[in-house]
């Protein structure tokens, strides 16, 4: 079993390692969010603009003492400008309005009528054998209000188009 002293020594060794920089895209985002141009950063770090461009696109990383200075800038930017524009504490979501009472079953548009004839099951009935034995709901044929009786109504298939039924299984 490790002693407390060993564990603390291991942690201290980790803390003494060189600081890790965020990914290059995050480096560039933080500079933009802070409004610091690459030229201004280069002046502050006493290096060239091209070197700062290389830092931001991940081609190179600064060496000490520039590394610590650059890390300080990035840490300050990350605290001030969290990733994805998310504020440090997210605001509570706005309440979602509840819909008024909704009927348990949808019976179609107001004034629609079933044009299948009087001997079939009502809307929403399930097939229990025969051609509809797959358990799919039967085709519902509904004529919109004002549609003539003699015209053929559009039929909705009882099997979804993506179904493999009838495809040579």
UniProtKB/TrEMBL annotation:
Residues 45-54 have a biased composition (Polar residues). Residues 118-133 have a biased composition (Gly residues). Residues 78-89 have a biased composition (Low complexity). InterPro entries: Cro/C1-type_HTH, HTH-type_reg/antitoxin, Lambda_DNA-bd_dom_sf. Residues 32-75 form the HTH cro/C1-type domain. Residues 56-66 have a biased composition (Basic and acidic residues). PROSITE patterns: HTH_CROC1. SUPFAM superfamilies: lambda repressor-like DNA-binding domains (SSF47413). Residues 45-169 are annotated as: Disordered. PANTHER family: ANTITOXIN HIGA-2, MERR FAMILY BACTERIAL REGULATORY PROTEIN. This is HTH cro/C1-type domain-containing protein. It comes from Streptomyces lacrimifluminis.
């Amino acid at each position: 079993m490790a002693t407390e002293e060993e564990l603390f020594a291991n942690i201290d060794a980790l803390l003494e390692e060189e600081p890790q920089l965020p990914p290059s895209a995050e480096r560039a985002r933080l500079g933009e969010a802070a409004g610091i141009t690459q030229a201004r950063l280069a002046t502050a770090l006493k290096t060239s603009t091209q070197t700062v461009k290389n830092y931001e696109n991940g081609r190179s990383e600064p060496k000490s003492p520039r590394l610590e200075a650059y890390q300080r800038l990035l840490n300050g930017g990350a605290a001030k400008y969290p990733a994805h524009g998310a504020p440090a504490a997210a605001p509570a979501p706005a309440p979602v309005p509840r819909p008024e009472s909704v009927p348990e079953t949808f019976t179609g548009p107001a004034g629609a009528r079933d044009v299948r004839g009087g001997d079939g099951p009502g809307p929403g009935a399930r097939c229990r054998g025969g051609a509809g034995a797959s358990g799919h709901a039967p085709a519902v044929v509904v004529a919109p209000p004002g549609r003539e009786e003699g015209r053929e109504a559009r039929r909705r298939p009882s099997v979804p188009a993506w179904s493999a039924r009838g495809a040579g299984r």
